[in-house]
Amino acid sequence: MTAPLPDPMLPIRYRIQRVHREIPDTFTLELEPEEGVAISQFATGQFNMLYVFGVGEIPISISGDPAKRKPLVHTTRAVGTISKAMRDLKPNDVIGIRGPFGSSWPIKQAEGKDVVIAAGGIGLAPLRSVMYHILSNREKYGKAVLLYGARSPADILYRRELEHWRAQFDLEVLVTVDRATDSWRGSVGVVTRLIRRASFDPNNTIAMVCGPEIMMRFTAAELEKRGVALENIYVSMERNMKCAIGMCGHCQYGPNFVCKDGPVFQYSQIQGLLSKREV
Ligand SMILES: Cc1cc2nc3c(=O)[nH]c(=O)nc-3n(C[C@H](O)[C@H](O)[C@H](O)COP(=O)(O)OP(=O)(O)OC[C@H]3O[C@@H](n4cnc5c(N)ncnc54)[C@H](O)[C@@H]3O)c2cc1C
Ligand code: FES
Predict the structure, then answer these.
(1) 250 lines ligand 2 (CB under 6 A)
(2) How big, in percent rounded to 5, are the helix, strand and coil portions of the chain?
(3) Are strands 72-77 and 26-33 parallel, antiparallel or unpaired?
(4) Which residues are within 8 A (CB) of 225 and not within 5 positions of it... i.e. 6 or more apart?
(5) What is the pLDDT at residue 91?
(6) What is the pLDDT of residue 116?
(7) 237 Cα to the center of ligand 2, angstroms
């Protein structure tokens, strides 16, 4: 029997089963609920609040396969106090989880259409669940294109998975880096440059974009130039959060709360706000 979920403000204890060191500053945690009570199934693009006991709580997207309830998977880049404390956790340590929260990527609307997924840096983490979904439901989608940009070859996230996906005949995977090394023979330059090379029908495409805000703006502009309507472009926004349930106002973004109206927004809905700094 499924136990009723506790208060959305009360973290559930999850135990770390595995830690994958992905690239120097980024790691993936695989988590299992400690006492049988688990958060509900998640939709692609949703996030959880991860609580490092005694340090604090941060929003992190769920980057695992939405068809699998266990383990719960999160990939985090260590940038500050809480994410660095999280990086120091080891298998068998306990972490608090609240969620899942927020809106999801439009995987249902994308059925029967071509799909362009464009990610920059850690922005691939919130989109990996979409990749898993498309690959498990390949017949429901038209062309599938993944465009990924990293700072350097050493910063390429999920490298083995990208190589595996690139080897598939029904998927186009293009990767670029900002700064090449001597041994890099791939593309150099920003991710937006890959859009011209990708093969998709702009009149029948849904695009999902995640990365730094400037990358999302330029990517949307380039997609629009190729003929993709702005309402068919979706982006995932990051804002500082506290409650994650629409109560505290910390994540307010114009008339929207990123925690409950987002993080995934139709680009046309938030285009005018994208260059504004958070409050
Ligand atoms: C919906 C959502 C999903 C996210 N998913 C992921 C994910 O899958 N993986 C991941 O690595 N990160 C993700 N983030 C960003 C992550 O929450 C921040 O990196 C984290 O809160 C930083 O906390 P800190 O205490 O480690 O850093 P701090 O010490 O608070 O700050 C370090 C630096 O990060 C900036 N920062 C702090 N909090 C945020 C924030 N919430 N958003 C953007 N910048 C911030 C600060 O301005 C500062 O420059 C997500 C954020 C949101 C809102
Ligand atoms: S985080 Fe409190 S309203 Fe969004």
Answers:
(1) yes
(2) 25, 30, 45
(3) antiparallel
(4) none
(5) 98
(6) 98
(7) 13
Does ligand 2 lie within 6 Å of residue 243's CB atom? Answer: yes
Which parts of the chain register pLDDT below 50? 1-4, 278-279
What does the pLDDT read at residue 254? 86
Q: In Å, how far from its chain's centre is CA 58? A: 15
29 Cα to the center of ligand 2, angstroms: 24
9 in contact with ligand 2, CB cutoff 6 A: no
CA distance 146 to 85: 32
Q: Indicate which ligand has the atom closest to the C-alpha of 260.
A: 2
pTM, whole model, 2 decimals?
0.94
Whose Cα sits closest to atom 5 in ligand 1?
A: 60
- Tell the burial category of 202 from Cβ atoms under 10 Å away from its Cβ (0-12, 13-18, 19+): middle
Ligand 1, CB cutoff 6 Å, lining residues: 47, 58-61, 75-77, 79-83, 122, 125-126, 238-241, 263
The alpha carbon of 260 and the centre of ligand 2 are apart by a number of angstroms equal to 8
Task: List C-alpha distances in Å: 234 to 118, 208, 228.
Answer: 10, 5, 11
The predicted-structure confidence for 193-241, as pLDDT tens digits, reads as follows 999 999 999 999 999 999 999 999 999 999 999 999 999 999 999 988 9
Q: Which amino acid is at 75?
A: T
Tell me how far CA of residue 169 lies from CA of 10, 53, 188, 227, in angstroms.
Answer: 45, 45, 24, 25
Closest CA to 253 of 218, 261, 46: 261
Q: Residue 240 Cα, ligand 2 centroid: separation in angstroms?
A: 8
- Locate the ligand 2 atom nearest the alpha carbon of residue 243 and give its number: 2
CA distance linking residue 156 with residue 160, whole number of Å: 10
